[in-house]
Protein: Nitrate reductase
Amino acid sequence: MKLSRRELLKTLAGAGAAIVSASGAILPGSVGQAEAAEAAAESWEKSPCRFCGVGCGVLVGLRKGKVVAVKGDPEVPVNRGLLCIKGYSLPKILYGRDRYKVPLLRQGNKFVEISWSQALDIMASKFKGAIQAHGPESVAAYFSGQTTVFEGYAINKLMKAGIGSNNLEGNPRLCMASAVAGFFSTFGMDEPMGCYDDIELTDTFFIWGSNFAEAHPILYSRMMERKHQDANVKIVSLQTFLNRSSDQPADIVAIFKPHSDLALANAMAHVIVKEGLINEAFIQKHVTFKKGLTEIGYGVEDNFEYGGASETSWKTYKPFTDKAQPISFEEYKTFLETYTPEYAEKLSGLPADTIRQIARLLGDPKRKAVSCWTMGFNQHVRGTWINNLVYNLHLLTGKIAEPGNSPLSLTGQPSACGTTREAGVLSHTLPGGMFVANPEHRKKTAQIWNVPVEKISPRPGYHTMEMFRALDRGDIKVMWINTTNPFQTLPHVGRYRKGARKGGERFIVVSEVYPSETARHADLILPSAMWVEKEGMFGNTERRTQHWFKMVDPPGEAKDDLWQIVELAKRLDMGHLFAYGEEPLQKALFEEYRKFGLGSGKDLAPYDVYAKVRGGLRWPVVEGKETRWRYREGFDPYVKKGEGVRFYGQPDGRAVIWARPYEPPAEQPDEKYPLWLTTGRVLEHWHTGTITRRVLELHRAAPFAPVWINAEDAGALGIKTGDPVRVQSRRGEVIAKAQVNGRNTVPKGVVFVPFFDENVLINLVTLDAYDPISKQPDFKKCAVRIEKA
Structure:
């Protein structure tokens, strides 16, 4: 029987749903078994998925206080009833045998059980002691894009309005900071202007540095469906190695050398300008041109300050940006003259004719264009720049902020947008897209939080890399790590793992659900509730805010993270920050938080609306109506009649086209370390695998992280698939099994290792260089050598 793609996806969805029995009584394998799992549920409740930033809607099946099944919610337009294999595995993530159930205190090399009262008293005493002895900058909190909006907003308020420290970071600094800096420097506001509807409305896709098929499979399936519906649809896959996102039916597969994307994007702009493919009317009305500093460094050394910084540079902090100089369109054209396709070919290895072909597709006035990217752009020592350059292409052609024409930065975590970015859970931000260094922003924040404005420090705290360097140095004494696993995810992680256990006054608190590399380095472990064991809100890639209620109890004495934040506040004599009378805490926090965005283009609907609606709403939400396309008249309520397009994040309403040059990477192969290393994800596992490796089926499908090696390189070294090999850099080494070809095929001179496997701790090898503007590290390229182990 021949199935259509849609029928096949539905069949796979049904088979996948059979994974969900928490008791293990129903095993995967057939639609009939899936129906049995569904029948086992007594009731169904709505929730977004716990995993990536796509924001799929899930219906959660409950029976006798347990989650026994999930299915895709057909009423949620994100996924339309489908889920990926991780989504179908959601119930099993709750019931691993080694869940943390009681607080644990380190005693030597062992952990002993203690009560919650003891744990919180110890935690509070460590915070108080450090603050009294060394000031508020001696304590820090490191949260996550998996943190709910309630939790993120609460820790932000506690740290900045209570403790008076801006040493609050989230792990989106490792994955989305360059996207944020790119949005702000080009448009003056964060978050995409388009939405997922563009997938069905465009006819040309440009996939930059993203294994879309494995990292965001539901969106990839929507793109594939669009492609099958219309033979005119073209897909261009721009990658540093062949992966599932460069398989057929991609029309153009462009494999380029690591870091050369800067030259490629400028070469595309060169072709578009030279061949008259620009939208001149759009440029004249809606664009300005600027150039910034060059040769800005790589952030490798402690306390790094790049060229535009000074002792008072933080006073004009918006945000981690550089000094900009206006230029004319003619000056921009002169800048582009260097970036001929032939010049870009020398740097990238991609033929000049292919560069022209790709540029002409994007510039064709008869075609629409959507550009998508993830960590290939963002985890980059010039991540802000390459984000700017893809916006340049859309601004030059006017293909932006309208149906089917959109640059769409894809988000890795479920609430990297809704919590970390929008609620301001970073060292330089305040809720609603505001900044600690801006006196007017601090004044507004102090009024909403009902604290003296002097309480909110104007100086940004440590960004993530500097925060962990400060812990290593001993400048930070106490750190609370919540919902994330930095001692597996940080680059050059060997330094920071050692720093965590140097002793002295250092004290690390980790809120976790399962044993992890970070929990193993803790002094105090707090057992946390996860997903539907608590009430929450997430915000996804397309500005969609979704809500869910608590559905089941967590195991043992595990507590939700919001409770932990409030209990710590009480012990720090700051409980008044969360005193809202009889109103439920989550609702009170959200209603206070939404005050920050009202009237500023970041409007959120009332709490009660999100509590009821399936699938949430895309902000700004004005008069009950969500916004699909921002900055465009007729779609965005902040663009007045007759304006057409207005990029209202910028004072003049114009977006910026940046002249950003190619500069070399921080490290590149040489005689001693002749290969490029790049890292990333696989379909089966979520980030560090702390959760997904507890799901038997996912673990069986991908039990370890291999090192993908080019066949020619492997042959020269006498290596074949399955051989143990040593991957070594100037910082550290790991041993992994070799994999020649398979789901990935790397070019000669490149190796790829996923980061989910704690037994193949690839971040011992990676380099902690970062983008000086966004402060996001570059996990995608460093120099290594390979040998048989």
About this structure: The chain has a mean pLDDT of 93.
